[in-house]
Amino acid sequence: SYDRGSTFNVFVGKGQLIAGMDKALVGMCVNERRFVQIPPKLAYGSEGVSGVIPPNAVLHFDVLLIDLWNSEDEVQVETYFKPEACPRTVQVSDFVRYHYNGTFLDGTLFDSSHNRMRTYDTYVGIGWLIPGMDQGLLGMCVGEKRIITIPPFLAYGEEGDGKEIPGQASLVFDVALLDLHNPKDGVAVEKQHVPEHCERTSQAGDFVRYHYNGTLLDGTLFDSSYARNRTYDTYIGKGYVIAGMDEGLLGVCVGERRRITIPPHLGYGEEGRGKIPGSAVLIFDIHVVDFHNPSDSVSITVNHKPSNCSVLSKKGDYLKYHYNASLLDGTLLDSTLSLGKTYNIVLGSGQVVVGMDMGLQDMCVGERRRVVIPPHLGYGEEGVEGEVPGSAVLVFDIELLELVSGLPEGYMFVWNGEVSPNLFEEIDQNHDGEVLLDEFSEYIQTQVDSGKGKLAPGFDFEKIVRNMFSNQDRDGNGKVTAEEFKLKDQEAKEQHDEL
What we know:
It comes from Eudromia elegans (Elegant crested-tinamou). It is a single chain. With 499 residues, the chain is an alpha+beta fold. Helices cover 13% and strands 29% of the residues. The strands form six sheets. Strands 3, 4, 5, 6, 7 and 8 form a six-stranded antiparallel sheet that branches. Strands 9, 10, 11, 12, 13 and 14 form a six-stranded antiparallel sheet that branches. A hairpin with a 4-residue loop joins strand 10 (207-216) and strand 11 (221-224). The radius of gyration is 44 Å and the shape is rod-shaped.
């Protein structure tokens, strides 16, 4: 048989062999080698075989058993590893990805997906595989390893495959299942942690910041936002992410952790991408850090309001307040309490982000409130390097400690009483018909100190005075004349922040 380059294939005990060989092969194991001596009466007797075996010849056979099977055999399955968790097993019409080594019964390797460094991907139970493999893969878990032994009539039969597999060969597949899904599968969501307080859940059109670990079904990590040390930030429900993630991120709470399982037709499909193989099921373990909607405005929750709350903050007021600033997930960003001093601003003057200007409106001294500011009213997409992440929702817990009423809009100085009819002459102390900056500044300071006038609170005195003086110095020569000098109510058609 070695000279012919093919094994001798025959049924035993059915008269297809000489009687001695029929007896000699009984009880042999695959890979067993026997030296068989057969007397003439159990071989070719007194006739022999013309030109080959003489009459009354004793025959000697050196036999090596390569393969054996019976027509009543079925597919044999031996599981040698099974994961503890097995939420689902292979069923008819599932699509699976698996690695395998294919050998004959004697251990000879004829094929291996490992050598190709690529899984074998196929549907199960619909005729895409040999019948024995269609049967042998049923009931497997992802991560399971099993030996599937297939008789030839459930494999490649009498003809073999015309290549590596000869006719009548039993096949042994050592299979490790990596992935399975069904084309009818949708996104599966497993909520692992939901905060007790969840004022709002995400909706289509929201902008979400979240951390994630992305793995394949066999646990292979393909991506992680934690490794990059920054959240993944995106709109949801608008096609900015794969369809399965668009769906899986709907209805989440800030602080929620969930596992999102995405079949390939809602992931990266048959082609895959980068480290993600084609037809791969994806698992994302996500932690939602915050979300907002571009239409969101500032949210204000009053936690305490004094019984006497008649004076409310307005634009131009000078405010002193304490705050704790944090992200929606509770990460502390900043606190005036830790610095031991208040934060002081002129409301509506652009000294804080727009959302804070809005959040401090109509507040009375002693009031405590929580102000939630969406990023477009905070620090935007860029954030503040090293301090505030980009596109972050900000939470300020505020206590107003002091309020100094500001001036009417457009004014930096007002009189507390009647204005002198000889105002220019009073300012022009040396009576030379010209007022210089030093004279102007000294006069204003005197009015403020005596209580006759009031400057806009919270601004630098010198800057205010210079601004007032420059508005009066209409020709810009550093001097103000009587012709140039006008009070605010004398300038109905001019817009200046001066007297």
